[in-house]
Design goal:
Spore Coat Polysaccharide Biosynthesis Protein SpsA, Chain A, 7-stranded mixed sheet
Length: 274
């Protein structure tokens, strides 16, 4: 039987906005044999659920702290589009998140550490602005972690994936190589992420994933959304993940739920969506 762990992260300002709700919904609805490694910044929320392992990043993520220190004063690592890219990106150079390596480094370094810390076959990243609205068993989660696949993710055609959820099979050669390469492009950022066209985590994730898939051609992976969404949209809730989870990305956090008529293109029958 292949085993599963989850990993996520959030910082103090969002603890009350959606962090506690995320923890409570995981505790209530996710299979009781599955752990969550939760990396926090400037807060250590209490929980009675022993499956939720709270790890304050300043104590447990030294590589993340070093990365932030190295790049804290560098504009290009903090959302400022470099001049050489700005010249050829007249339509989106102002979208700072695309070049905010510091902001999204919290996610990737949590994954790197949890992969070493956990003892499961699969490690699933789950954004903390996700709400588990319905019970989900181990067997139901297994549909998102096929035994022979080295990775599962939410593809969006030619656009970078939706990285609110992805799984890595830690026992496979491609899975191990992916993690090594993913960490290297951050640790050696000048010749790694800063050589890419963008360096938010989803773009970097896809660049590394494609290289791994090329190296291990023929080794299966699982695109959960099947490219149902090609470009902008909400593949998370339109895939089978929507049976159990809602992802409150962007301003959806303000209302506490995804927008049914705007976001859903499939017919969801679960009570939460009615």
């Amino acid at each position: 039987m292949q085993t599963i762990s989850f990993v996520s992260t959030f910082h103090k300002p969002v603890l009350d906005l959606y962090g506690r709700r995320f923890m409570d919904s995981f505790s209530k609805n996710v299979d009781k044999d599955i752990k969550l490694y939760l990396y926090t910044e400037h807060c250590e929320p209490k929980t009675d659920d022993e499956r939720i392992i709270v790890l304050e990043q300043s104590k447990h993520l030294p590589k993340l702290i070093d990365f932030k220190h190295r790049w804290k004063d560098e504009p290009k690592a903090n959302g400022v589009c470099p001049p050489e890219i700005k010249k050829r990106r007249p339509k989106d150079w102002h979208k700072g998140f695309k070049w905010d390596a510091i902001r999204f480094s919290n996610k990737v370094y949590a994954v790197f550490d949890a992969a070493e810390r956990c003892d499961t076959d699969w490690l699933i990243w789950l954004d903390a602005d996700t709400y588990c609205h319905s019970p989900v068993t181990y067997d139901q989660l297994r549909q998102f972690t096929p035994s022979r696949a080295w990775m599962s993710y939410l593809g969006r055609g030619k656009k970078w994936p939706e990285c609110g959820f992805y799984g890595i099979n830690l026992k496979t050669k491609p899975g191990k190589w992916f993690l090594k390469k993913f960490e290297t492009v951050y640790e050696e950022a000048e010749s790694g992420i800063f050589k890419m066209d963008e360096w938010h985590d989803s773009f970097v994730f896809e660049e590394v994933r494609k290289k791994v898939q090329g190296k291990f051609d023929g080794f299966p992976y699982y695109n959960i959304s099947g490219d149902l969404i090609n470009g902008e949209g909400h593949p998370f809730i339109n895939s089978d993940l929507g049976k159990y989870f809602d992802h409150l990305k962007g301003d959806r956090k303000d209302v506490g739920k995804s927008n049914k008529p705007k976001d859903l293109i499939v017919n969801r029958t679960e009570g939460y969506w009615q």
